[in-house]
Structure formats: structure tokens, C-alpha cells
Design goal:
With about 280 residues, the protein is α/β, with parallel strands linked by helices. About 40% of the residues lie in helices and about 20% in strands. The chain has 10 helices and 8 strands. It has an 8-stranded mixed sheet, with helices on both faces. Helix 7 packs parallel to helix 8, helix 8 (about 220-235) runs antiparallel to helix 9 (about 240-260) and helix 9 (about 240-260) runs antiparallel to helix 10.
Length: about 280
């Protein structure tokens, strides 16, 4: 492995990893198979108790950097990587996911052809044991990101899987101590602060693994995350009264439907009321 220095790769890939020994090899293989070879991969081992770090150490490639820290959560892990990224572009890859072939080159080509675009979305293939998984198809309408992400427009946000220019990130970081919606908070606040210009391509650029134990199955955590999101976003300067009202109603509806699907009507009402009061 190389020491971090003055080398400037085209793309920095950021991966937080916690007890990912059994899956991170697939992520590594998907990066190695990319046709764009000028990348760096920064893996932050967030206090794993398994062989995650050993799996990364066994990769003899000076484009791979391993950072080890005590367990502090996914936001702290991503922030540790953002503190040292060197690429002109930055993208995120979770330890249990994969990049399809051409993922890096297609996005880099688009961003280089469109210097006015700050952040790029792409198609996402959901992979898992069930057969009814649907592809995520992003909006390809370019324009300001903030008004759309602040209204939870699914066309512009699926997760932290964009590619963006490192120059627009600056010292902006993920909120630590937040276990859910931390990525939504990060990108909404960044879009507001930097007035990001969004674009999307239809190409599949990410393979997202859906598993029963994923963070999205923890409704209590999701509810707490949405409350923190509202606490932060409702105070942003560019949020109009109408936008605030719409956002409260949107999240109230999401949480109510989520609890109803679990057969918890009383909890659905309580969650909706809490979001509307935020």
C-alpha cells in the first residue's frame, strides 16, 4: 500500500467498513475490474472485530489505502476518508455493494463534458435474495439540487452514491452521532451551502445489496433520523414556509405508511403527529 502523498488520482472511492470481512472482497473485485484505472480506494475500518482489515491489507495495490479507527459509526468513517481524499472526483461505495463495469469511466466522462455540473446521480441495481427488486432510475433533469432534495424528491436521491467534484465538498462533513438519514442530511446541507448543480445519467453505476438486516429495516432508527433531518433542514435559510410544510407532511406520510406496513396503526399515528409538530 502506498503512503498518502501529492499524487492526484482522477477518482477517490470512499468505503466505510465494519465487520465486512465476508463481503468486502466483492467490492474490491468490482473496483479492480473498472476500465478507468486512475483511482484511489480509501477504506476506513470502523473498529471491526473480524478480519476486515486483514482482507484489505492482503490487497497488494498502491492505490488502496486503509485507515483504522475505533468504532465511531459510518459518518465518522466517511469523514476520516474525506479528510484525506485526493481525487478530482469523489464517490462512495458501501462495503457490501459493488460497482458495475464502467461505473467510474461513464461518470467521469459526463462530469468532464459538463463542467457546470457539481454532482452526478446514476442508475442503481438492487441485488438481493428476493426477485421483486426494481432498478432505481434517477431523474436526468439537470438543475439546482437543493429545492428537490429538500422535498425528498426520489428522482434525485437514493443514497450516498453520487459522484461529485471534490472541490465542492470543502470542509463539509457527515453529521456524527446520527445512525440514520446521515447521508440525506449531508447532501441536503451541502446542496444548500454550495448551491450544487445536479445531473443524472440512466446508466447503471451502482449495485446495492438489499438484506433483511439493513439499516432501512430499523424503523425506530429511521424515525429518529428523520426527526434530526427536520431539526436541521427546517432551519435552513432557503426553506420557504411552503417547503417546510410540504416536507413535514412528506415525512409524516412516509413514517405512517412504514409503521402501518408493520401492523402498528397506533405507532403510525404517533409518528405522523411527531413529524408534523417538528
Amino acid at each position: 500500500m502506498r503512503e498518502l502523498g501529492e499524487y492526484v488520482p482522477t477518482v477517490s472511492i470512499v468505503t466505510p467498513a465494519y465487520n465486512a470481512e465476508h463481503v468486502i472482497g466483492e467490492a474490491a473485485a468490482s473496483i479492480a475490474a473498472q476500465d478507468l484505472e486512475d483511482w484511489e480506494w480509501i477504506v476506513v475500518d470502523d473498529g471491526s472485530s473480524d478480519g476486515t482489515a486483514d482482507r484489505i491489507k492482503a490487497i497488494h495495490d498502491d492505490r488502496v489505502t486503509l485507515i483504522r479507527q475505533e468504532n465511531r459509526g459510518v459518518s465518522a468513517a466517511r469523514n476520516a476518508a474525506l479528510d484525506v481524499v485526493r481525487g478530482n472526483y469523489v464517490t462512495f461505495l458501501d462495503a457490501d455493494d459493488r460497482l458495475p463495469q464502467g461505473s467510474l469511466s461513464r461518470r467521469v466522462a459526463f462530469l468532464e463534458e459538463h463542467p457546470d455540473v457539481d454532482i452526478l446521480n446514476g442508475g442503481i441495481e438492487r441485488v438481493g435474495q428476493t426477485r421483486d427488486l426494481k432498478r432505481y432510475r434517477p431523474s436526468t433533469d439537470a438543475g439546482p439540487l437543493f429545492p428537490r432534495i429538500a422535498q425528498l424528491d426520489e428522482g434525485v436521491f437514493f443514497g450516498p452514491f453520487y459522484m461529485m467534484r471534490r472541490s465542492v465538498i470543502g470542509d463539509h462533513r457527515f453529521p456524527e452521532g446520527v445512525t440514520h438519514c446521515e447521508d440525506l442530511i449531508f447532501f441536503t446541507e451541502l446542496a444548500h451551502e454550495r448551491d450544487l448543480t445536479y445531473a443524472g445519467i440512466e446508466d447503471i453505476v451502482y449495485e446495492y445489496r438489499v438484506s433483511p438486516g439493513s439499516a432501512m429495516s430499523d424503523l425506530d432508527g429511521i424515525e429518529a433520523g428523520y426527526l434530526e433531518y427536520l431539526r436541521r433542514v427546517l432551519l435552513l435559510e432557503r426553506m420557504t414556509p411552503a417547503m417546510r410544510s410540504d416536507l413535514r407532511r412528506r415525512i409524516a406520510s412516509i413514517m405512517a405508511k412504514s409503521w402501518l406496513r408493520r401492523g402498528r396503526p397506533a405507532r403510525a399515528l404517533a409518528a405522523a403527529a411527531q413529524m408534523l409538530r417538528a
